[in-house]
Amino acid sequence: MSDLVKRCVACGYEHPSTRNASCGFCESTLYMFNKGQQKWVELPSITVFTSPDAKSSIPFIPNVIEVISVGRGESNIVMIDNPQVSVNHALITCDARGCTISGCGSQAGSVLNGRGVVDQILKDGDEIKIGNTVLQFVGPGDR
Predict the structure, then answer these.
(1) How would DSSP label each residue in 36-79?
(2) Which range, of 7-21, 65-79, 80-94, 122-136, averages the lowest pLDDT?
(3) Cβ 91 vs Cβ 104: under 8 Å
């Protein structure tokens, strides 16, 4: 049995289902908690910088959000309104082995830490540039 459980940061309720992204009692975001080590586990996430002063963060949540799609199309989790960006440009995937970025065949490609990339394992702090939008990968770790 795993020591990892979904727990609400605000009210402390331990949720039996890992499919929930928010607490059913107080609607706060749920995070993974390691019961054996009695500490919070930070989930990997993607921070999207939409302008120099604006950003948003999208966490990878096991069984809820394991793939973040990026592109110009409206069906993407990260939608970039830029003609240089393909409708389905890239996929950022997290699983038990780690997180990777994969291209979807876009001619413009993606840039990871200043270099063109097709498929690459991501590390904490990696900077991804798609069109003129910058995304930053925040790796998992202890809170």
Answers:
(1) TTTEEEEPPEEEEEEETTEEEEEE-BTTTB-EEEEESSTTSSEE
(2) 7-21
(3) yes
